[in-house]
Fold this protein.
Amino acid sequence: MSLTPIGDGALADDPMVYVHNVTKTYHSTPVIKDVSFQVAKGEVVSLIGPSGAGKSTLLRCINHLEVPDSGYILVDDALVGYRQSGDDFVEATDADAARARSTVGMVFQRFNLFQHLTATENIILAPREVLGMKKSDAVKQAHELLARVGLSHRVDNYPSQLSGGEQQRVAIARALAMNPKVMLFDEATSALDPELVGDVLAVIEGLANDGMTMIMVTHEMAFAREVSSRVLFLADGGIVEQGSAAQIFDAPEHERTRTFLSRVKRAA
Ligand code: ADP
């Protein structure tokens, strides 16, 4: 991998996430094209744009579920997917990668809970196995996190006994159990019945208010407008424009953004 030197002052404000010239290609089709952006600590950034724009792939690169073909990503100054050995960067082992990934929590459209484990058991798994946390501490933390997402009464329930919205809140608690520095949400409410969306959005909003750094791919435009410190509009693997929620939703500069927003509005 070739690393562009990061000179003094190159990082404007010590960002929590630094995406630098990232390109990702599938079967010789570029889906992320030389994308760069930064996310400051405590910022909530929404990625919006048409299906196929590359939003999900970008999130997956930040979480090292995908490896960029070129460019690199830093999370809290640590290079995602690599570790420093002297002056060199070498590819992280699976164990390194699991630890590094634990600094980034990710919540998916499908909740991916283990069906044979209770809510508490789902949440304690990674802290026990990756961080070596003592069982009693992990259970105590899981119960605190379930309380935080409004599910104190569900600690011993299996996923099949929970609604989709409840399962997604368990998935959020599970991600938080690793004490992540950044939370990524990939269309976290898209698979939910409309009446269950509000409870999940309320949990995400609570995290924003607590100062969690977050990057969200979302189709919930009203929600993105409410919680985002910044909105990035992506199309065809690139950032077309970015700005405050008011700038992007009320005064988009690019025709592409205007077309997308008017389509979304018509569909709502
Ligand atoms: P978005 O989240 O904006 O809808 P994605 O990041 O999911 O976009 O996808 C961007 C493009 O990359 C799409 O054309 C999609 O078909 C393609 N793509 C995504 N993942 C893969 C993969 N694992 N293999 C091949 N193509 C993929």
Observations:
- The first strand starts at residue 17 and ends at 26.
- The pocket of adenosine-5'-diphosphate is lined by residues 26, 31, 49, 51-57, 217 (CB under 6 Å).
- Confidence is low (pLDDT under 50) at residues 1-11.
